[in-house]
Design goal:
By secondary structure, the chain is α+β, with helices and mostly antiparallel strands. It is built from five helices and 18 strands.
Length: 302
């Protein structure tokens, strides 16, 4: 955690960087309520007999007021999500910028065995007032991020991480896919300049540290929308990445030649899946209904 009071100065290749100055109260003030978990009464069939598990991450761009009004409605996004399950074999989906009502409808459409853990975003103003972010449209509920799973989820928890003093608060949500004994974590990191009170403060470094510290060394798949490019010697933000990310774990598209495929309409890679398990395959899917492409990682879980 960064020292309270002022942003410490960091040096990377002779360049000075500012990190988030987070007090203990801010660090622990994610969301007091736990993540909402929706499930059916009947457990999912154990379809991991081949000892593999496919995990997807996808920023759905489902919050229409966040420049997403032209990316398709709830029905189109539900269909795209179902294709990731039926055509690509995703059994766990890490989702960002989703609406609770839309995801609950998707869960029901996938079948009684599917389980949903959802965590809403919140917005904090300069006076310290915090409000929930609602999706526009009747019955769409809160905006947030989630883990959607074909298998029962256990030990669901929000991981405390530094969040803006004033601005949109995202976060990290973890759960265990018990049938495969794999810990999964969905993360959505703060954009640069995302703190209205301190626009120069950097949060992604400490958020990534909190994420890496929350997962086991091997039996994990974690990722999401990091709002961050892959580390590159010419990138002034490369210092944000913890060394463990690409050393203790391997990213879905790591070692891709000549470089990892982009996952955003801007032509950049912003979405990631890391694992300590053996990687079998990595795929990028353009769903046609988001500014983010979906990333799918198949791992050997046996």
């Amino acid at each position: 955690m960064s020292a309270p009071g002022r942003p410490p100065v960091r040096s990377r290749s002779g360049r000075r960087r500012r990190s988030a100055a987070i007090t203990v109260s801010v660090l622990l003030a994610l969301v007091v309520a736990g993540a909402v978990v929706r499930s059916a009464t009947r457990p999912a069939p154990a379809d991991t007999a081949d000892s593999t598990l496919t995990v997807a991450t996808w920023n759905m761009c489902g919050v229409r007021q966040w420049n997403c009004s032209a990316t398709g409605g709830p029905a189109a996004k539900n269909s795209a999500l179902r294709r990731l399950v039926t055509a690509d074999g995703a059994r766990v989906l890490l989702l960002q910028e989703a609406c609770s009502g839309d995801l609950e409808a998707a869960r029901r459409s996938l079948g009684r065995s599917w389980q949903l853990a959802f965590q809403p975003y919140s917005s904090r103003d300069r006076a310290g007032r915090t409000t929930a972010v609602r999706c526009t449209g009747d019955g769409r509920g809160s905006a947030g991020f989630a883990v959607l799973s074909a298998h029962p989820l256990t030990a669901v928890r929000v991981v405390p991480s530094p969040q803006p003093v004033a601005g949109l608060r995202r976060g990290i949500l973890c759960a265990t896919v018990a049938v495969a004994d794999v810990r999964v974590c969905a993360a959505h990191l703060t954009l640069p300049g995302g703190d209205a009170a301190h626009p120069s403060w950097e949060y992604r470094d400490d958020q990534l540290k909190a994420l890496v510290a929350a997962v086991p060394e091997r039996r994990t798949v974690f990722g999401g929308d990091f709002n961050l490019a892959p580390p590159n010697a010419r990138d002034p933000s490369a210092w944000v990445w913890p060394s463990a990310a690409f050393r203790a774990y391997r990213e879905c598209d790591q070692d891709a030649s000549p470089r990892a495929r982009n996952t955003h309409a801007s032509g950049h890679k912003l979405d990631y899946l890391f694992t300590g398990l053996p990687r079998i395959s990595c795929a990028v899917r353009d769903t046609g209904v988001s500014d983010h492409r979906a990333l799918l990682l198949k791992v050997r879980s046996g």
